[in-house]
Amino acid sequence: MRTFFFLVLLLPTLVLSEDNLVIVISMDGLRHDYPEISTSGGFEFIKKNGLEADSLIPVYQSTTYPAHVSMATGVHPNKHGILHNSFFDKERGHYSYSPESDWIDVRPVWTILEEEGIKTATYFWVGSETDWNGIQITYSKFPFSSRVSETTKINQIIEWLELPNEERPQLIMTWWHGVDSVAHKLGSSKEIVKKQLLKQDKHLLDLIKEIEDRSLWDEVTLIVVSDHGMTDISNLINVKEILDAHSIEAILSLGPSIGHIFLKNLEETELAINVLEKNKLLKVLKKTKVPDYLNHPKRTGDIVITTKSPNMLVKKVYSHPPLGMHGYDPAINEEMKGIFFAYGRGVKKKKLKQVDQVDITPTILNLLGLEVPDYMDGEALLLD
Ligand SMILES: [Zn+2]
Prior knowledge:
By secondary structure, the protein is an alpha/beta fold. The protein is about 25% helix and about 20% strand. It is built from eleven helices and 18 strands. It has helices at about 5-10, 40-50, 65-75, 75-80, 110-115, 150-160, 180-185, 190-215, 240-245, 270-275, 360-365; strands at about 20-25, 50-55, 85-90, 95, 120-125, 140, 170-175, 220-225, 230, 235-240, 250-255, 260-265, 285, 305, 310-315, 325, 340-345, 350-355. The strands form five sheets. It has an eight-stranded mixed beta sheet, sandwiched between helices. The protein has a four-stranded antiparallel beta sheet with strand order 11-12-14-13. The chain has a two-stranded antiparallel ribbon with strand order 3-4. A hairpin with a 3-residue loop joins strand 11 (about 250-255) and strand 12. It starts with a helix and ends in a 17-residue tail after the last helix. Mean pLDDT is about 95; it is low at about 1-15. It binds zinc ion (ZN). Zinc ion binds near residues 28, 29, 64, 180 and 228. Zinc ion binds next to loops.
């Protein structure tokens, strides 16, 4: 049942209507300063006519899976449980790029809306490929394939927009390629990502024009975000080698910046800490000393290590190591900051300073006239 009753009291400026629709596009790996590269595409259009934030602060670890799930749940990774693209859970074992949404501990925004009777759609978003606790997304494209072009996604979005009101989704979330691949391979400089950025920017303008052609901007709010930024790396820290040298057996659950070490023998905890601390580029924490924002009951290691760019945690030898990387703490590595743009219904031409990645879900709920639950870490952004 829809919460019409709350609207008059809490959200006088926004009225829940079946016409209102929110589109969220996530461009992978777009650092906050990349849109400056282009002066004639979708970003420039939104800068001139809509809302732009200086940057979006990603969650930590700032990698694709945790970030997308945070944007869909309004909480940090320690609460939703997707600590990295792959990780280890003491009860369930290894997770690796899984489409199984029941690994997510907190309900995604599409399930909140579907339970209110609001139709939703996703065209590739982490966690949306399968039902969460039996709650279906009305329209979902899967399985994930990086071969699907942005043009195909735009055509599907337009098809959804043209559905009659009773069938039309009111939330559409979609992942776009961004500049992630090229930056990982070749490096994070603006010169390197420029060609790919211009392509994405052109697609964004195409979508804006398609909506314009159908005179739908009175109903549609477009939000464009990224999951994380990008930086250059030059030093790989092989954690397995360090532990192997002292015959310490452990399961290693490593991201570029945060490593969870599950020891086979807990009596070796102090020894492991001592040998890891010899590497001055590592911060080493026993589980009992790990701050809350890194602590998940089943997925945080007995020892947690962290590092900053240009270092990267690894457990094997790479013949062609990546040159660009992300995952780092945005409070230490500013290059992790991403983008936030908005345009359309409920959005005024203005600038915001920084927005938090966990604000995306509350903002979607607000735009659709729903209450923001207390447990969420973020809050609805004032777009108008
Ligand atoms: Zn990513």
